[in-house]
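User: Please fill in residues for this 228-position structure.
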């Protein structure tokens, strides 16, 4: 199976507050760049048959841009698009994540990129020794619920077969107003999963909840270390 691994990344964050915290990231530009390098390296080590797609939205140096291009199959920086820039730098974290995902999915669809599964990883996080690729090499949806609450889905790492990419794109477009109102992206993604449950069953696929899912990294708004 061919895996298209989507990294959503904002290496150089704005100073605008989020709806739930005045500081977007305790990590500076250089620290976030180094953490993103670790994201890429873990993909290369742990996911076979991969293509890497990095979608970014920040002002980068030429050296940083060249590194990201050289270490990915597809690279797209939205920083010169005023609408995307405003969305990513808004107080709504879900609007930033959701709008970047919409742009990435549109790029994938419009360019007829070939792949079997989309594996999404949030930039700065990396695949840990708990990551089990055997959970991902199938036609199922692979996700993790937060604290066993299926109305709250972990969005830093998930897998969708290709057939569910257009439904996700359309769902996110239809829910832009919720993102503007600062809905939690984890709650929104759980709503998407519920919206396609019947389709998944009729297609003979399954929704697999995995814990641990095998991701580590530093939470941007605090000094917490995630490992789950």
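Assistant: Residues filled in for all 228 positions:
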């Amino acid at each position: 199976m061919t895996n298209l691994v989507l990294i959503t990344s904002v290496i150089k964050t704005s100073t605008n507050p989020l709806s739930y915290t005045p500081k977007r990231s305790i990590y500076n530009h250089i620290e976030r760049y180094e953490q993103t390098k670790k994201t890429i390296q873990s993909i290369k080590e742990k996911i076979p048959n991969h293509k890497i797609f990095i979608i970014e939205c920040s002002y980068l140096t030429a050296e940083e841009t060249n590194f990201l291009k050289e270490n990915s199959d597809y690279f797209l920086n939205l920083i010169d698009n005023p609408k995307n820039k405003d969305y990513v730098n808004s107080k709504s974290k879900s609007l930033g994540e959701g709008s970047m995902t919409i742009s990435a999915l549109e790029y994938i669809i419009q360019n007829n990129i070939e792949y079997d599964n989309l594996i999404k990883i949030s930039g700065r996080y990396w695949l840990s020794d708990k990551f089990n690729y055997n959970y991902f090499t199938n036609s199922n949806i692979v996700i993790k619920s937060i604290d066993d609450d299926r109305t709250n889905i972990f969005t830093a790492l998930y897998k969708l077969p290709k057939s569910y990419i257009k439904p996700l794109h359309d769902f996110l477009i239809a829910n832009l107003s919720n993102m503007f109102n600062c809905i939690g992206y984890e709650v929104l993604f759980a709503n998407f999963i519920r919206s396609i449950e019947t389709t998944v069953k009729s297609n003979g696929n399954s929704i697999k909840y995995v814990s641990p899912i095998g991701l580590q990294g530093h939470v941007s708004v605090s000094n917490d270390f995630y490992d789950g």
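For context: The first helix runs from residue 29 to 46.
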